[in-house]
Specification:
By secondary structure, the protein is mainly beta. About 5% of the residues lie in helices and about 40% in strands. The chain has two domains: about 25 residues, no CATH class; about 90 residues, Sandwich (Immunoglobulin-like). It is elongated and about 75 Å long.
Length: about 140
């Protein structure tokens, strides 16, 4: 028996626990018996307000290369952390910290300049929506 797959993205749902009943229709307009999905969690602004950027722990400076160390994520699924800093030439550099990495090296970091970071997450494994923390952390490292 052949299988058929239909994918639909529902937009503008309120953030809450939702129940859905799915029906199929044949070419003659006959409706199937519904299949119910219960307790489907919809994420939105409340979830975003709970997000915190990855936690910076320590740093070390080797000549002009700044190494930043981060704590492992245990309560959320981090998918990316963007870092931005100014190098010794006064140029803004943007880097990404992989979710599995606990450290990142910022080459030619200009001493005393701020490092900005902002993290993105998914609420559950295989989620299609990525949510980003609502604020940017500023690291002051001297």
């Amino acid at each position: 028996m052949a299988k058929d797959t239909v994918k639909v993205i529902l937009s503008n749902l309120g953030e809450y626990i939702q129940d859905f009943t799915l029906y199929t229709m044949d070419g003659a307009g006959n409706k199937s018996v519904g299949q119910t999905l219960t307790a489907v969690k919809v994420y939105g602004p409340l979830y975003v307000s709970s997000l915190r950027n990855r936690r910076f722990t320590t740093s070390s400076l080797n000549l002009t290369n700044l190494t930043l160390n981060f704590a492992a994520n245990t309560d959320t699924i981090n998918v990316d952390t963007k870092l931005s800093y100014t190098n010794n030439l006064g140029v803004r550099v943007n880097l990404s910290l992989h979710p599995d990495s606990l450290k990142i090296v910022l080459p030619n970091w200009k001493t005393g300049k701020k490092v900005l970071l902002k993290s993105s997450f998914i609420p559950v494994k295989n989620a299609i929506d990525v949510f980003t923390a609502s604020y940017t952390d500023t690291l002051l490292i001297n």
